[in-house]
Amino acid sequence: MFSDLAKMGKYLGQAAKMMVGQPDYEAYVQHMRLTHPERTPMTYEEFFRERENARYGGGSGKCC
Amino acid sequence: MNKLKESIGWIAVALAGAIAFAYIALNRGENVSAISLVVAAVATYFIAYRYYGLYIANKVLSVDPTRMTPAWKHNDGLDYVPTNKWVLYGHHFAAIAGAGPLVGPVLAAQMGYLPGMMWILAGVVLAGAVQDFMVLFISSRRDGRSLGDLIKTELGVIPGVIALFGAFLIMVIILAVLAMIVVKALADSPWGTFTVAATIPIAIFMGIYLRYIRPGKIGEISIVGFILLIAAILLGGQVAASPTWSAMFTFDGKQLTWMLIGYGFVAAVLPVWLLLAPRDYLSTFLKIGTITGLAVGILFVAPNMQMPPLTKFIDGTGPVWSGSPFPFLFITIACGAVSGFHALISSGTSPKLLDNERNAAFIGYGGMLMESFVAIMALVAASVIDPGVYFAMNSPGAVIGKTAVEAAQVISQWGFVITPDVLLQTATDVGEKSIISRAGGAPTLAVGMAHIISGALGGKGMMAFWYHFAILFEALFILTAVDAGTRAGRFMLQDLLGTFIPSLKRTDKLVPNLLATGLCVMFWGYFLYQGVVDPLGGINTLWPLFGVANQMLAAVALILCTVVLFKMKRERYAWVTILPTCWLLACTLTAGWQKIFHAKPSIGFLAQASRYSKAIESGQLLAPAKSVAQMQQVVLNQYIDAGLCALFMFVVISILFFGVRACMKAYALNHRTDKETTFEALPEGASV
Fold first, then answer.
1. What interface predicted TM-score (ipTM) does this complex get?
2. What gap in Å lies between CA B168 and CA B125, rounded to an integer?
3. Rounded distance between C-alpha atoms, residue B138 and residue B381, angstroms
């Protein structure tokens, strides 16, 4: 029951971040560790800025 | 046994929907509850998803759960990330939902709530959701590429370029019409102007916090930002009450127009982390929160519909916008029924996050159903207020006059009996000097929302607060759209100009940046200004142009889907896209033609131009122009609008031509010719 609630909270947090274009940082680190162990993953701060620029800097449109 | 249970469940949903529809259709009394509309709509969505959305998924497209999606194939933890379907649903919905589904239904309510409701439901099930879902599917089978790219590869380079050019024009019109909604809501409203202006320093503070103080902590700073917003609303009430302060924040439409144009330019040049991004965080969370709040409010308060199901303006003589239900109702409500703009989102970030094709219907079809529900709620909000108030707020001053006494008299003659006192009282309740001729949807929606939410929270004393909350909520994400859209337009323009002068392509250089941004702002600023000074109130000119443009983009996207079905040799299912394409072409081409050539000046651009030309020749002054020069400006504006309308028609007709040609070619061949990426199996255990 409590683990379900915790899981739901995690998904809600992820959903809120994904709505503003921020994917899950842990998943990114996990991915880097598994597939590119030779590279150092970005810190959360770098990751955040990279995503912020990718979302807004490229000039993708918003919907009406 | 489970199968039986499922069938019983679906029969119950169908029955609930049928009873709600029957109740709405047969009830000729006064008391139709908004709940019945909600039940009818939700039942329709469930049935449509289960029996049409999944039919498209399994039979028409035959989605393949064993196929690797781009999110797995190109997984980089950044752009391509396999994402839980509920998380992706939220992302997709937040990206497609904007001001569109809130405004169109409000404007359409002049014909009564029934026509708008029928079109919202029929449109979303058969056209809008189909488009969003199929474009998502097509893009996800092509590495998540964009609509322009998809048209280029499946239809050819020329149609691809034409479609991109069309998308740029649409962007210009969208920005102009969105900005105009803000202008109409803030004109002569010190309270509204103060709160909206306050969002700029609030956002900048958030931006600096996120950059330097506690980088990346969106959650905590959004809460702080939200509290500051509420404080700004409360402070706005004090500003409006003080004579000196309120004078500082009182502007007319033209002044606000220039301020918005200047703002758009500066905001699009500033670094994104400073203003655009933090305000987008605020506006996104506020949007989702307010929409949820509105839904809960409607269920909790269960208001009765005050607007009749059909008004006498079904004959096309309505004051809010002119023209008969066909084709104009179907372009007035664009988002919420079908919106071409969604094709850009469905071929943008969402296909790169899709974890399994099995979930494409839930995201694409289901996401659009939710947007349609927002449109139904907007229709409800516009219909639960006194129809007299609705018409006072949405009719242009040229028709109902400027004072409450004049307006009440004209509107009562239309059969919607209202006293000047009610109009004045409503204005006082929401903390404004006047509510007359505040077209554009946002203020009406705000009164409706204030009516509903204050019924649940705070009572009448809180109406002014909720009204300005609703105005702020709309202005916030409209301004975000203006920033982001100007930026997007600038990139498109630099790309276009760069083909002629390569040095202009450099997006990192200051001079090309300023030049392209300036041009982009000038384009939408021109249409905004012309809308604000328009004799018939702007909405009459700009909203149909926007609707035509948006639906035409939808027709283009659906033509792409049809071509892909033919190339996949699944043409026996192509009626799924051909049917809505034909309907959209019929609506938009008729509307485009009438907007250009209709003999009535309130509908046809050329007729309006010649009315003003004739007056100039005979030396008459036609209101609201105050000089011959202004009248000449009106004439020029009408010609430009007619030209733009003709361009939209050219775009869609040429895409239709290329589409039909591609379909015929594919039909003659006996093998598949679509440009799908080759099948790769999803690795064992790949799920999120």
1. 0.93
2. 28
3. 36
